[in-house]
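Please, structure for the following, as tokens.
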Amino acid sequence: FSHMNGKHHSERKSNGSMQKRLLPLFDATELMDSTHGEFEGREEGFDYLELNKSPTTKFELEKKRLAIEEEVDHVYERLQALEADREFLKHCIGSLRKGDKGLDLLQEILQHLRDLKNVELQAMKNMDQCASV
């Protein structure tokens, strides 16, 4: 299983640039007129030419865009984790079909997962306590 987890971890890293390509919404909002360097016209009552003149508004929009990109990245990472979990569950089901040895292995894995969860919960609790001080 460790080989499989490493594989998914490296895929997650290499897919970082692909995440940016999954955001056509942002590309559509930044349609620039190549000759004037200004946003093209109005869309849904929003004046892009006026927007281009306001640095504060542009900064706020860029900040919002970055926040959305970060959220999409987080969702994409979670999707990758769920796909890895799915593969793990497939292997678990295969182990169950092998009888007692497979069941023993799954119980051992389950205990390790419980231990990891407890460590993570303790770390989060410690961070919360540090933040409140």
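The chain has two domains: 2-86, 98-133. The beta strands are 42-43, 46-47.
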